[in-house]
Amino acid sequence: MPPNVVVDWLYVGVFAIVGTIMAALPLAVVWLLAPRADLPQKTLTYESGVIPFGQAWAQFNVRYYLFALIFVVFDVEVIYLYPWAVVFRRLSAFAFVEMLIFVLILLVGLAYAWRKGALEWV
Amino acid sequence: MSASDLWSIVPELWLAGLAIFLLLVDLLTARKSLVGVVAVMGLLLSIIPIGSLLTQGARTVIFGSYAVDGFAVFFKILTVIATALVVLAAIDWLPGRSQYEGEFYALLVFTALGLVLMAASTDIILLALSIEFVSLTSYVLAGYLKGDVKSNEAGVKYFLYGAAASAVMLFGFSILYGLTGSTNLYEIARRVANAPLPALYLSIALMLSGFGFKISMVPFHQWTPDVYEGAPTPVAAYLSVASKAAGFAALVRMLMVVVDPGRLNWILLIAVLSAVSMTLGNLLALPQRNIKRMLAYSSISHAGFLLIGVAAFRGDFGTPGLLIYLLGYMFTQLGAFFVAALIGQQLGTDDIPDYAGLSRRAPVSALLMAVFMLSLTGFPPTSVFIGKFYVLAGAIDNGLLWLAIVGVVNSVISLYYYAGVIRAMYVMPAASTVPLREPAALQVALGIAGLGTLLIGLYPQPIIDLARSAVLLLRI
Q: N vs C: which end of chain B shows fewer Cβ within 10 Å?
């Protein structure tokens, strides 16, 4: 193995060790120094100051996940549209048509979600 | 990338467009069977651009990452036929079971696109992406019946197992890239000669987990019976045929292009895995009562038979035999699953003893099922017989006589459980004599499967010629 490779790996080793210490040290210091008071209230679920009631195994609506999924459509669109727009002047007509097709495919996804009622708040 | 490159991937573009079009048709119509009919017509039309590729020479397109050769064309044809048959069967099977009918056909066509990509990728990144593409749509299809606990179980099991297998396979790909510094299969093949052998062994072993998962090879087979049992029956049929075929295509391309067996003896490894798959699949199929589980274990054992064709790749029999076997097995296995779908739909049961008296209640389906069972055993004149004949001849030709003997012994063992189905249908007294309704589209799909099984068995010459030319073009 050439010497500069050894040095490179040494960096990696030092980095790994220092990184581990950096992560572990604050935890250890806190564990050693912090005052401790084991009150029963501390084991309660935190509910923004309100005293919790009932069980956590309640059913609640997961409507938001639909919106999150539809958001992905626009998210992906934007990720590719920005770099495309930046270099647009240097691109050929081929790239323009390509992006049109890409947007069209995403639009089909949106139309599908819309028609299937994913945008309704029921 | 040039315009002629684009011209060479017209079949893929067609399939992508078709799947998106199906989603739109689903939005516009309330008659969901129409979506299925459009899917079948679109798939059949895709034969035209696929066939036009046959006249061109073998080459790679899109910066060398995608093969346009006879081998890929063969798998394109196989995938399209299998998908069309499965869609036909689903048109009668699906209504009333899921409220998402149109999407089902679109997902099947998307899967077909992924399978086609998988069979033709010559770049490990494209290969990994297409395998993931197929996996994702397959997970959804396996768990398609939302209200059915077994289907949910199938989806989750398939997902967990598939995700792990893919991760291991990707690790193997990354080692291959690390050894050679290229993602292109042909470039890798040129550079791999200098790679250290242990790392190469590790890479091949890790990659085999991904391919082994797709083709349900022992020891990556455990998901098969549970997924086939729980998944919608047409989906189980599809997984056992199209997904397996594409897995074999990727495996063969990878092994034959990249790894010189003179340097790394994968032949013995594949031969042993083949023998183990055949035997274990067969022995586990013996006690099964559920037809779908039985077909699942039998599909593991057939994966073993197909692996003979991979191991015996030298000469005129092994690799062409693999292709002939895959095509013949496709018709037979699809047909067997379609009969299971028919019975499951009409009687609400998948247990083989409930097939009693089927020869009276549904004579045509029972006769076809008997043909499929005999074909799966390997009786002439059926399609799987031709395939078995070729791969076994290949094994002897390649000096793997012991493997051929294991194959023959396993064929005899398999007769027991295949004949059990025929016995139930023809010998056992029926609980009822009410004739079963045989829905039209499912009946057409069954008829085509039966016709394919018998035609390939009786007149195999065109298929043999096609397979031979497909293999010649494999290595560009």
A: N
